[in-house]
Amino acid sequence: MSRPTPTPPLTPQFCFDTRVLRDFLRLSRSSIDDSISTTLNALVTPASTSPFDPRSTAVRSPPYPRPPIPAPTTRTFLETVLFPSWSSRASVIQYCTSVATSPDPEDPESLERETLNRRDAERVVDERLDPYSARFFPREARTEMLASVLRNEVAVEGIIRTRTWGIVADRCEGVGPNWEGEFDRWKESTERKTNTG
User: Residue spans with biased composition (Pro residues) (predicted)?
Assistant: First the structure.
């Protein structure tokens, strides 16, 4: 069975390095969500004989209808692999969102950006001589760039979870149609176990 992607050490530097942030999210999604059908197929034991008997492949069974994955197996997969991966990504996105919305006194480009903005405000523009001279693309602060990346990643996360849950609900017994409710119940039970244990 797949293992959930562990949460990396969360620091502001991790968030501001958007390449590393995106790589973590992409790796976690590809190892769990993108391969969900393969993972679910692995949950069903295909061979009924041990050791392998070549005669078991003499008759090919049709791919549909597939037998549903039993509820206990499904629950184990959800609670030990899928939901922890989702939770890890959610905690990274939540932490980096708090970094993006906080003041950033250590921004190495803030002084340079302010100088450019002041210089642009003092610039005299004659659009008759150069119609493109009025264009000015102010440089964004790194918190603004991070916020933009996170907005995209939140949207991607929602799409991926919906798609993954559709496949899980189609293949597994005892799964509700709404991933948000199931995920919230799992988080609450995990928090209760953590607080009491």
Answer: 62-71
Q: DSSP secondary-structure letter at 172?
A: B
Helices and strands in the chain: count of H runs, count of E runs? 8, 0
Structural domain contains residue 50: no
Copy the structure tokens of residue 114.
């302010």
Q: Which residues contact 7 (CB under 8 A, 6 or more apart)?
A: 88, 91, 92
pLDDT by residue (tens digit) across 151-193? 999 999 999 999 999 999 999 888 888 899 899 999 998 888 8
Compute, in degrees rounded to 10, the torsion defined by CA atoms 41, 44, 47, 48.
-160
Q: Which domain holds residue 178?
A: 11-41+68-101+136-196
Instruction: Check residue 135 and report its DSSP letter.
Output: -
Domain count, the chain: 1
Question: Is residue 170 situated within a structural domain?
Answer: yes
In DSSP notation, 64-85 reads SSPPPBPHHHHHHHIIIIIHHH
Sign of CA dihedral 139, 141, 143, 144: negative
The model's pTM is 0.76
The secondary structure of residue 11, as a DSSP letter, is -
